[in-house]
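Re: your question about 3-oxoacid CoA-transferase subunit A

S., sorry for the slow reply, the queue was backed up all week. Below is exactly what I fed in.
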Amino acid sequence: MKKIHDTPAAALSGLLFDGMTIMSGGFGLSGNPESLIPEIRASGVKNLTVISNNAGADGFGLWMLLQSRQVRKMISSYIGDNKLFEELYLSGELELELNPQGTLAERIRAGGASIPAFYTATGYGTVVAEGKPVEEFDGQMYVRETWLRADLAIVKAWRADPAGNLMFRKTARNFNPNMATAAKVTVAEVEEIVPEGTFDPDCIHTPGIFVDRIVLSTLNEKRIEKRTVRRKETV
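Result:
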């Protein structure tokens, strides 16, 4: 089956519908599927539930879908400095399911591994545990969390081969690999498509069986959310 598509719009063709759930990779602004998100915005699809560590930053990433009011609910672990995210939530325009970061990652991994629920000590005794079953194991209380799965996962990788095997570069190997396993359809935008047989099998981060469509990135801005530097010391 041909997995390589010519444009981000073609890679998403026929996949988008109102009310769907989308997993979007990235950690801060690293590893964001920055070429696919604008195409989702352009499609006009609405009432989305989006699962992502955060929701981009001013003018970048998932912020675009918040700004166009296409997102109904965010399932996230970090709001950060996204003022639009904050405003929409506080005004009641956006529903938010806030997760501890490790719990979010494990819920996504569980979805990919067909594990419907698991227990974690994180969040016990806090608002995170409200309404959730708790159970005692070896004298400690644990909260039951459920898996996360999606209709579509959009991920950003460094390199892919025609079979859909993916390699991620450094921090971009964050939520992307797990999300690729936890959706009905996974679309990967990549910086480079290499010939079949290029990859050492031991260096593949996401096997091609989890990837349905591939497209070359049209945007590779890789914006830095916060730049922290120190002054050069003088002798």
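DSSP finds six helices and twelve strands in the chain. The chain has a mean pLDDT of 92.

Happy to talk it through on Thursday.
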